[in-house]
Amino acid sequence: MSGPMAEAPASPNLAGDLLAELFDALWIEDVAGFRSRGVLGPPAEDGTRDYALVLGRGHLRARVRADGWRDGIRFAGSARFETACSREDLDASALLERALDGLSELSPAIRERTLDELRRIVDELPPREALIDSLVTRARADDPILWERLAAWRDRPFHPLSRSRRGLDRAQALAYGAEAGRFFALSWCAVARDRLARSLRAGQAEPDAAILDPRQRALLAREMETRGLARSHVALPLHPWQAAHVLPERFAPDIAEGGVVLLDFRGPLVAATSSLRTVAFPARPGLHLKLPLDVSTLGVRRLLPPQSLHNGLHGGDLLAAGLARDPWMTRFVALADETAFWHFAEPDGDLYAERPALLGCALRGLPVNGGPVIPLASLAVAPRGGLPPAARVVAGEAPDLARLFAGIAGLVLGTVLRSACLGFVPELHGQNALVAFDGAGPGRLILRDHDTVRCAPEWLAGAGLPVPSYLITDPRRNSLLLPRPDDLLAYAQTLAIDVALRAIAEAFAAADAGFTLDEARRILVATIRGVLASAEVPAERKALVAACLLERPTAPFKQVLTPLLDMATLTTSMPSRLGHAPNPLFLRPGP
Q1: For the chain, what is the domain count?
Q2: Which among 346, 353, 313, 301 is positioned nearest to 191, based on CA atoms?
Q3: Which of 22, 221, 289, 568 lies 20 to 30 angstroms, CA to CA, from 443?
Q4: 51 - beta bridge partners?
């Protein structure tokens, strides 16, 4: 067993968490010279140090401490801005404003957009605090919607703007966001059959057959028949926000001509998952429905582009073929079924047009085994401090966190490294992967969202696996087909290790005085060595993987703020860029 549990704080400090996450992102990405121009004072008795940075006519001051994950510093206390005649304590919004003022070439529009993102988050902190008790006290193994709520609590860990929902006001964010877990009824429309495209694998079934119970189907069919639409149109579910705010304007000509008809039928009740645009059904834990929602999060419009849906088919095929090649993955990895989808079609069939991304739906079927199935991200969330509720449910009140972390790391690294050695890497951040637990602990890893399975064609060919026929919107920004295996491994390092597993390690270390980040890194290094020793792949591939993950002093780091500040127009792809930072798993040579 690990050591005794640390006492949980009496109340949350969400504003402090946001300030710390922002400072750390500014420092590691060196925004406005936060890292390169910052000056550190000598260590104090408690290990913290003074930090100072000249910004304009004053100094930014803060207390920092050593980063327990990699070489560097982390925020450790209040921040303030000092001039010769004034002193101002800084919250997250004020800190970001000072940092952006240090970027002389930043356009005013991007500056204001970025500040607005953070102000929205700050404005939502009181309502978020009101949700904490229900998140902590109601955690049950058989409540998958609550696990989605917890996964959404931080959204993408270490991304200070991840909680922003541009397009939703406060009431809408409460009604449609995952954190509150509120149920809402789906809206529906009817689309003319000649204006609707579908996955070839959807068969002849229509969305209502998978979503509605017999009574609901009868009500929908009656309205379709009464309005003369039963033979000419197909009923599609809509997110109610999209139905109210997007369809009347963007599809006005089609509505006027009868090609798109808004229906009176409502239902069934659903709740948002951690991805916001994907909803879950309370009575059907294995079924999800993905819907376009023209709301921006993480600098991304949450639409449903047809090319992404088609890429998901190809990515899923590659995952299935790769898993079948490895007995370990056949046993310990499962895939969500994401083969059925429908979307609006323009007369010219242009998959890259905008309107097909605004109207459509996709079904997801998750394998259910009877035990808790928990998003990886949920294991890193402790809204009131102390032990994460997910860890308590699957491992008890006083778990051996080292053993639990090792089991989770074994699944994640076993999957991502064996996949990488075959030439592909699923996007293994904490929301796209779920852990299925059984009585012995972490049992299987379930992968969902297959539209961003990245691959190195050279290694795929060497393993006898086909290169996916992806639809690439912008070849210059393509990150699906990568020219070098090193580029492929960078996604394994950044998403699986430096985001998903690091977030869990930090949550466990904060909860238990007997579990440290040093121990977490030792477990990761040992797990990597064990996976590579047992994987049946060419030795030269294993050597390259070991070199990238363990033997280089720097490692790829996923920047999120800097590319967002460089993007004038938001798209359907999250702004990100690979930089470099000290490698947390670097095996330093002995004396």
Answers
A1: 2
A2: 346
A3: 289
A4: 40, 62
